[in-house]
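User: Predict the structure for this protein chain, please.
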Amino acid sequence: MSFIRLIFFISAYFLINASLAQTHFVYDQDTNYLHRDKSGQWTFKPGLEDGRWVSLHSANDTSHKSVIAYIKNGKKEGVERKYLILSRELFSEIHWRNGLKHGKETLWNSRKILHAIIHYQHGVMHGYTEVRDYEGDIKYHGYFKHGVKDSFWTHYEHSRMDTNYLQYDQPIKRYRLKYVNGQALMWDYWDDEGNALVENGNGTSRNRNYDIESKSYKNGLADGVWTTSYFDHTLKSRRTYEEGCLTQKIVFSPNGDTSTFFNYHCTGKSWKDTTYALLQHVHMDYFIDEDVHYDKLYDSTCFKKYNNGNYKFKGEYNKDQKIGIWKWYYPSGEGKIQANFDSNEWEHFDSLGNKLETNFKGEYITQLTSRRWFMNDSIGMDTVLLSNQNKHMITPLLEFGHDGTLKVILYLECGKNTHEVESTWQINGDIITLIYPDPWVFEEQKHETKTFRIHSTEEQKIVLISIDE
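Assistant: Here is the predicted structure, written as structure tokens:
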């Protein structure tokens, strides 16, 4: 390299680092420079002037920093550090390249104990990941490959409920999943003494944690009978699987009576494996939630009962299609809805057995009116999720009345209701029409009418898809 070129590179190096060394101080929550990311944390906006950016918690106190980041060409570059407000301790260190997470992200809890390590490549999780509990003991670890879990993930258990609560001195290795093309297989499972109950995808696991659970596997997939029993060994539920597919589900009441019975026609198998890796707060876990999802169709006679033994509903399926007479009941045993799915004739009754004159059709009325529903976001969106599980600090709460009334409430997570308005709703089959107010404005002129198709239903949620009227 010539002397002139050497001088050029040295000069360029010092010019670039001089620009990055320039420090810009702002105050926490200054929306001119900061915004909230998906996890709810304050972070610097893109497009800022190059240099070192520091968010200060206290005015004129440059030692009380909240966030430190470096901007190059308007994007984050290098190491970003975040600090706890009260203790001023470092709790997050993230490596960036050209505005994307690239390299290691490390988290610590308020006790300065390692909480999580996650590796990224160009903005997606790639490489080794581990998560530890508040005491610093390992919870699970494994590898991502271009954003998808890969190879083996090992999970540990720290405590369990037997006849009383038992806390282990050291976490024990409980099970290991093997991921093949994104599909999770139960590969190994160990009991409390470290004995292998499932090896290389074959065997029967047995665990006692609140309930006694027995699960059989073949080639890593659920296969055979799964049972759950109470402490006294009274059977609580029984599921039957074939090569990963659920074919039958039975739930028993404490007295041994069958309270729920479903048969399924299996059409395929897969694993629902949802990864939550957004930091919400230093005390909140990064966690990875595995749950088996089976592609199945309801088949033959099905029913469900209330805790008092009275039927909740009963009817017959033919490969996921309801056929013949279906009935829904009040807890008292009085009929609530009777539907003939062959002729599409519906009858509704009040709790005293009197027939109701209503245009409501479809069994969704039973689900909607028997629960309180939280909305995930504005009801004006094309897709609306109504869920029984509130995951937001403030969210609209909907209460559907059997008479077609609708109550919309701004609901706080602490349980306090800040405001509420009355509205109406109608349903015909799987089409629902809501005449609703803007949940955030509550002005009379803001009422709108919108029609949705009920896309799918589960125990804890209903998904509404906007359609043209």
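Residues 89-305 form one domain.
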